[in-house]
Design goal:
- The protein has 71 residues and is α+β, with helices and mostly antiparallel strands.
- The chain is built from 2 helices and 2 strands.
- It has helices at residues 4-15, 28-41; strands at 22-26, 47-51.
- A two-stranded parallel sheet has the order 1-2.
- Helix 2 links the parallel strand 1 (22-26) and strand 2.
- The chain is globular and about 35 Å long.
- The protein starts with a helix and ends in a 20-residue tail after the last strand.
């Protein structure tokens, strides 16, 4: 998706005074739309965009993984 869930999580955590960053791992054609959406939300510095396919590519390194609408 375009990162809506990640935006909600980051904003919720930031309201509590914590600073975290996120990674959106998505197919290249989706990343284009996500970039525009994250710009509008002012979170381009907090969210890295990584192109890839969940079923064939290695996932980026992270401490926590949240999967949404994978199947």
């Amino acid at each position: 998706g375009n990162g809506q869930l990640l935006v909600k999580i980051l904003k919720s955590v930031h309201k509590k005074g914590k600073v975290i960053k996120g990674v959106l791992f998505e197919k290249p054609e989706i990343i284009q739309n996500a970039s525009s959406y994250l710009s509008l939300k002012g979170l381009t510095e907090k969210i890295s965009l990584v192109e890839g396919d969940f079923f064939t590519d290695e996932l980026p390194e992270g401490d926590v993984y949240i999967l949404c609408r994978v199947l």
